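Hey,
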Amino acid sequence: MANPFGISGATVSLPQVLTAPVLTGLYEETSNGIPDPLSPMGFMRRDVLVPKDAGTFFRTLGQRKVAKFVARDSSSVERQQGNMEEVNFKCFTTKEHINIPLDSFCNFFDPTQSNLANIVVDEGGWTEIMRQVGLAKTTLMNARIAALAQMLFQGAVYIDGLGSLLPNSTGARQTFSYNVPTYNQNQLNCLNGVNGGGNIIDHGWQDPACPDIQQQLTNIQVAALRLTGRRIRHAIYGRNIPSYLALNVNVSPYMIRNVFPDGGKNDEYLSTGEIPNKLFGINWVPGWSMFYEKDGQNQDLVGGDQICFIPDVADKGWVGFCEGKVAVPQGLVYGDVEKMVKDSKWMAGMYAYAKIVDDPMVVKVIYGDTFFPILRVPQSIFIANVNYGT
């Protein structure tokens, strides 16, 4: 059987397998633990790389002003650089390790061997390496997904004193706020006098007779364009939203009967129970599947009545993703500290490496990640709660 590591040769030795490039490369072969609608949308596509774990970005409000008109032969008019601030941040850092008994890698080895290259990894060892690295990658991706979801649905990331992610600010020892305006949250009081002002979500969607869901969605588009110049392209929604729309007397016909200009039918609701992808010109993304475990309890990352409306994720003018670098030994570490230091390279984002330790004799696999989700334009996201008093 061919080995799964891309290493040529009839046999594979321990030092060949337990290297940073091989272990980190296995991350690509592992699926995520938390159901993940975010990375396929492009949220984790890195556009900022910092030397270690600290960086800056510019936070801006929307720019909708018009250049001033002047006479052709007049002097230029100075434009003040307003609505912008430089934000310092420290990347979120995760670092854990797992201990694997050395005899898990091969059926037989001689502990007195001075040359580790003679220890051949058997098929059982391959399986164990793949399993352990898969678990490591799962926890790292879970942290990324959870932090992104909190940015989008809380407007902040909360971490307790033990390094665990929190569902809200209670007990938080570390908080990073993305400064999403209060009028861009809950009932979305962000039109500031346009169309009468007040809340955009002025009638709760839980009421099947709610008469103006379509108008509310239009008003969110109006607010998005007025605040940032960006149209809403996606709506990431909680578990109650499909039933609210399907039961609504005005929206339900669109859920099951509409035919799009390209001839396609929006049969998602009939076949899956989810909102049709192009309903009212928006890509509807089920976010209710995202959760994480804390203290043995599942914590929802998206409230049942929440919807986060966002622009196109490919537009990195409003959102970004940063990775930091860590010095990582490239080969299997065993004893020679000087060689380990000389063999180290800076690696961005997720990484893994291994070392042999004694008492008991195990392979210690160290893995981690250095990352930070960036929200450059806080007004570009609309964190709605559609369950509102009727």
